[in-house]
Amino acid sequence: MVLTHSTNHTYSHPFPTVTLAYFLRYSSPQLNPFAAHVLSTDTISSHVDPETQRLYTTRIHLKKSRMPSAVYKLLPASVSGGNSSEKASYILETSVVDIKEGWMKTESRNLNFTGVLSVVEKQHFKVPSSAEAVARNETDVNSSVMFRSRLGDKIRGKIGQAQESSGWLPGFLGGLGAKGIQRSIESLASTKTIDQLSKSRDGMRLVLERLRNGGVIGVLEKLRQERQRQAAAL
Amino acid sequence: MSASLAPECNEVKERYDTCFLKWYSEKYLRGAEKDNKECADLFNEYQKCLGVALKTRGIDKLLDEAREDNKENDVRLTAPKK
Question: Of A59, A66, A97, nearest to A200 (Cα)?
Answer without folding.
Answer: A66
